[in-house]
Amino acid sequence: MKLSFTKMHGAGNDFVVIDATRAPFRPTPALLHKLTDRRFGVGCDQVLVIEAPTAPDIDFNYRIFNADGSEVGQCGNGSRALARFVRERGLSDKDSIRVRTSTSTLELRQLPDGRVRVNMGVPRLAPAQVPFTGAAAQAPLYRLELDGQPLEFGAVSMGNPHAVLEVPDVDAAPVGELGPRLQRHRAFPEQVNVGFLQIQGRDHVRLRVYERGAGETLACGSGACAAVVAGRLWDRLGEKVDVEVRGGMLTIEWAGEGQPVYMTGPAETVFTGELEWPN
Ligand SMILES: N[C@@H](CCC[C@H](N)C(=O)O)C(=O)O
Fold first, then answer.
1. What ipTM score was computed for the predicted complex, to two decimals?
2. I need a labelling partner for 162 at 20 to 30 A (CA). Which of 132, 139, 181, 269 fits?
3. Is the pTM higher than 0.95?
4. Which domain holds residue 87?
């Protein structure tokens, strides 16, 4: 059997997108591995699956699988890719669509310049919602010890968990060393995406993210939203912030607590292909 797929990216965070609106997609661990593996398969950070809607108020269901096969509830860059995919495939001719993941409802709007603006929903800030169980939590800057080293960070859920650490220089940040250790700290029962944030001004930051289930990616959309939310709660950022990531630029807007976060950025198709499966 041949499985059709589309390779896409959003600011360098790359995806294999599967259209399951007409035929079901059965994501076995072996198939997901074949789609994500960069040497023996297609290769991507996340597999995105678009399905027919299961509720009248949405246009599509949106499922997300990390490179390690874990299914998660949010992928911001992926949602922009999805908006583009839906348009290119003629699955919808609306300028704005609503999609539902296992944790969030997102509104995706095509802009005339080709970028996509996403209403990412209201960030969840209570430690239990992240979830983060650090007992001595003191919002909006939390503390814990990692192997005797004190760490301070923000903790935000954008429909998936994020910890945000401020660093003086993202290029020198210990992303590959500290990222996986904090990610698996017992205070994060669902593990956590770890963002390293360099604040350059109230409207410009640089960011690297060590993602759950994928390692460091060239961009993390939900991570960019979480970083701006944390920076604003620390009173260090304005309402509209350009977030420079290794694969490009995202613009994040947040008016403050109780308000949704908006993310604007690029999405591109790289190629389409067919995979013989099982092979
Ligand atoms: N790349 C994503 C986030 C993908 C999911 C994440 N790794 C998780 O496990 O929560 C984005 O652009 O938001």
1. 0.99
2. 269
3. yes
4. 2-118+267-276
